[in-house]
Structure formats: structure tokens, C-alpha cells
Design goal:
77% of the residues lie in helices and 0% in strands. By secondary structure, it is mostly helical.
């Protein structure tokens, strides 16, 4: 079943990455586009997926830092708590896929992290 799930993830890669222009950060297509870009670079290489996840984590942290730079201090705790809850949820959600840190785990973590980044961009703005 996991192999078929990986196959489903790979199906839209050619269609999405063949577009000339990448979507902007507010586009609903952006998370799928950038996840598929990473998957086309990595395929099934776990080490590559780890690197892509590290990059996605850095980018997500940049979005959070930018948000904190202009949020009123009264909103800090809410955003910080939401981030901690999201991390716990992401980790649980991806852990059931595998007892080891294999490519399915990293694919899940990467997809979730990219989705979170673009959700924050759309919901909170620059």
C-alpha cells in the first residue's frame, strides 16, 4: 500500500513541473508545485529528501521570524503555541508511516512543512 501511495505522489510531477512559471506564495498551487519540484530532484533518495526537508524547515522559520517582526506582542504566544502544536501534529502524522526514518517519513515531513509555509503566507501575509 505504501508503494502505491508513493506512486500516486509521483504521478503529477511531470504535469506540474513542466509549467514555465512557478506560482507565487499566495497561490493555492504553490505547495504542490514546490513539493513536486523537490520530489523530481530527489526521486527516492532519502539523503536528498533530508536535505530538502532542512531547506523547507529553514524557509518556514524565515516566515515565522518575519511574522513575529510585525505582530503585536499580544499575539506572540498564540503564534508560538500554534507552531508547537503544528510540529507535534506533523511529527505524529508522519511517524505512523514508518517505524524508521525512511523515504516515506521524509516525504511526509517535507510535504507537511511546505504546506505549512504557504498556508502561513496566505493566511498571515508578508
Amino acid at each position: 500500500m505504501l508503494k502505491s501511495a508513493a506512486g500516486l505522489l509521483a504521478l503529477p510531477i511531470a504535469a506540474v513541473t513542466s509549467a514555465q512559471d512557478s506560482p507565487d506564495g499566495y497561490s493555492l498551487e504553490a505547495p504542490a508545485y514546490y513539493f513536486n519540484e523537490a520530489m523530481s530532484r530527489c526521486q527516492i533518495d532519502t539523503a536528498c529528501l533530508k536535505l530538502e526537508l532542512s531547506k523547507a524547515d529553514r524557509e518556514l522559520n524565515e516566515v515565522y521570524r518575519a511574522r513575529f517582526s510585525y505582530l503585536p506582542k499580544s499575539k506572540y504566544a498564540g503564534l508560538r503555541d500554534a507552531e508547537r502544536a503544528w510540529i507535534a501534529s506533523r511529527d505524529k502524522d508522519c511517524s505512523w508511516l514508518s517505524s524508521s526514518r525512511d523515504r516515506f517519513f521524509y516525504m511526509c515531513m517535507l510535504e507537511s512543512t511546505i504546506n505549512r509555509k504557504y498556508r502561513l503566507l496566505r493566511n498571515i501575509g508578508d
